[in-house]
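Would you mind writing out a protein's amino acid sequence and the numbers that encode its backbone to help me picture the idea?
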Amino acid sequence: MQKLRLSVFLLFGITCLALSSAQAEVHGRICPKGRGCVLITYRYANPYQMEQQILPHLMDLEKMFSKDILGGNCKSEVIDEKRLETNVEKKTLVEHWLVDRCGKQFAYRIVIGPNPGGGVVVALWMPPEPVALDDLPKAPNGYAWVKILKGRSALLKPNGWFVKEEQAKGTDAYFITKEDIEKNGSFSTGLSLHVVYDLATELRPSEYAEKAISEMKEAADKVLYSSKRSQRSLTSFWLRVKSTKPNKEVVIKHYFYVANDETKTLWKFVFESPAEEWKKAWKIGKKLTKKLRIPNYL
């Protein structure tokens, strides 16, 4: 949470150095678009204590909007957070927080902005979305589920294949491959997934994805398949192309992009294999790209 504390401090220019607890006011109301949310107003908020100041109120918030989710007194702990949006003009931050409550995980959409009366206003979109992968369907014979994103999502892995995970600023990457990337330094057949939270562009995720798909079409030797579908804030793109690598190897790549303009995230799935092995490889790739667990809050 250091990033959040520092970002809030720099963005809002709050110079309060008081170590005393903030005076918090909790309000329940209906936010725009008919969605329920809770506002917490910190009139003397210390940005370096933001996490500690918000957590004690999570029980009250859940009682207010989701009484039936959890009962009893539970310890709350933010176990992961992702920056979704920074609006310098409006001086607001939007983050996704993963909260552990009684051993169960819940997703909160957090909006932090200036309070006209001084201090900071924090809006928690409610009800929180339960994050549980205990109900994963049985994996097909010869496959196993691999949990990713700290248990918030999952991918299928063929038995005997390899898994590699990488993190960079604003992106989580996962690879399910036939070859061992750690040993070979690359792979020929497999699935790669990049979950991008910060595109570093003014384009919306759907616009960014559409531009990328268009460029890949132009660069390909042959376009084998292309499709697009939109539903509310989600836009999905499919593209399959045949291309020639610099080493003259001919490959086929199947792209599946899911752009969420509301959460400002982009999921980029790519399954690839040498062209001469595609027919056999795609029998596996089709399973990997069809059996996907993408949580709505991401």
